Structure prediction request, 718 residues.
Amino acid sequence: MLRLEQRPEPSRAMQIATPIIAVIATMIAGGVMFALLGSNPFTAIRIIFWDPIFNDVVASYTRPQLLIKAAPLILMAIGLSFGFRANVWNIGAEGQFIMGAVVGGGTALALYPYESFIVFPIIIVMGAVGGFLWAMIPALLKIKFNANEILVSLMLVYVAANFLSAMVTGPMKSPVGMGFPESRNFNEYQSAFNSELLSNTGLHFGVLAMMAAVVVGYIALTRHLFGFQIRVAGQSARASRFAGVNPNLTIALCLGISGALAGLAGLFEVTGPASKLSTNFPLGYGFTAIIVAFLGRLNPIGILFAGLLMSLTYIGGELAQFQLQIPAAAIQAFQGMLLFFLLGVDILINFRVRLKTKGVA
Amino acid sequence: MNLIKTLLAGAALATGLAGAATAQDKLKVGFIYVGPTGDFGWSYEHDQGRKAVVEAFGDKVETSYQESVPEGADAERVMTQMALSGHKLIFTTSFGYMDPTLNVAKKFPDVKFEHATGFKRADNVSTYSARFYEGRTVIGHIAGNMTKTNTIGYIASFPIPEVIRGINASYLAAKAVNPDVKMKIVWVYTWFDPGKEADAANALIGQGADIIMQHTDSPAAMTIAEEKGIYAFGQASDMKQFGPNARLSSIIDNWSPYYIARTKAVLDGTWTSTDTWDGIAPGMVGIGEFSDKVPADVQASANAIIEKLKSGEMHSFTGPINKQDGSAWLADGETADDGTLAGMNFYVEGIDGDVPN
Prediction:
């Protein structure tokens, strides 16, 4: 029998090795699943992990798409990681993402057709404000009444989704949309359109914001007092008070930062890749970002890689679907396996596996 | 650094060779579905059309599909990937793919696109749809005859002309045989969501509906109707297996002839951008076999309607018809023109409630 034995201290080697072990384990388990479905497992794995980056037919298109798909996930995950380190659990980034898109996008629709360089900065600020204010609801309820921020922020996702529906079937509905519940297309409004900055690079303002968030997040977490404070707050609330940390301020800051970043992600997504507000515009990025935050071990650099890996499985998964006719559900199962193994093998960091010798009482 | 370069070069070579090996002379035809092929409704029938293409042309074509593609940024990416990987004909089978299709078509002028139910075309983008409203006229006639509570429930997806037209056609046909009939409408704002569709069916039954019609893609409402012992109609596909007792008839989408014709046009080099809107007569809209729950005289009158629609003797929208607000729309004997039908955004007189706006 196997037995787990606690390590005296976390293994550094394992911290680096576990993601690689997890990816290999996923490839094996996923390969078995693809083989059972009648596809060549080696081709499938190559298409998912290799083709989006290196295939000479599609990669020139899919490489930038990896950035585009990863940008909102990483931006939101970095915001969430601050709170998660401080034991402030914002589960409602999806709602803040939607509100950022609605408030920022709605501002743009209100300004239409006024063309000016000032429009885009205004809607960026409004997007961040939308997400920030939506996150302030759980923050204030937590500070004032000690309401559980997990429940409040999660429930507010559904409120936000219904608010979005009401907006796109009502005031924000496109006058040229034939009754479909969606807003005007932002690519018809140059001043508000989050276009690609350099053609075929995938770089749009959201990607730039994501990169800035990685750098600023890393500095704040490792080199700044704020990073120290939230780490202390997460490890021991009592100790953090002795260190002069105001717990209410920590709650407000953590929710506020994650809300504002989620709002920004929503704004950049709706004015760029999605190009319009509609009921099916939110695709659950806010929930996926929670996974990305943990995959990246709540570290901005780790989150950057985790987001890109997540994005790779989406885009590679799409390629595998139509090239090998693998069902969409099998691709989702494959992504699930990746998460399962990544989180599962984490145990090797703190424990080592030993063979149990029989007969020892 | 050199090692990495060598590795990358080797990898590029290997994948390049793999790419060359799959590039054949076959015509690659791609299909993009909004739901899973196993929805037993809309996407299922498009996939049946794809299979018919394979059967008709054998190894002259190679088809691929992607299911459950959300209408938005993801759709555009999937279409681009298909076009890049050598597909020369791509069917995009949901209304919400309209703008993505046009955007991608602009970037790939040598790829032909076929967009279902849309209204925007380009040199390399055709549109096609079926006159489902003719089918609605037939099932509306049956429903009007068979409802005991005089209440028909209607699960509607999005308030676009396509859906509003179906509601109006069903109501007019039901009212023609049953002046007291009422239509209860629930908007679910989705094409495929079995949970929401089932909730809508239960809500309609709660409001007294004893027959349910739907403009959504799953058989969820059919299974609820079977459980509750009321009636329903198969939508897009026959759905008999989901409601052996509940199902009265069905509107069946038959895309196979169109998909075969368009594929042939590309193979022959005769493809041009067109707008197709076919009904019962050419077979794009099929009416499923009547259940034995439908009385013989109703079956006979329904069959008569089908024949008249086929021959053109009858039109689903024939005056006198007023709009909901009482204003005149069609004079006695006048039939609706396609332009008005394509942009229909109003209920006809007698339907309660407002088109969501």
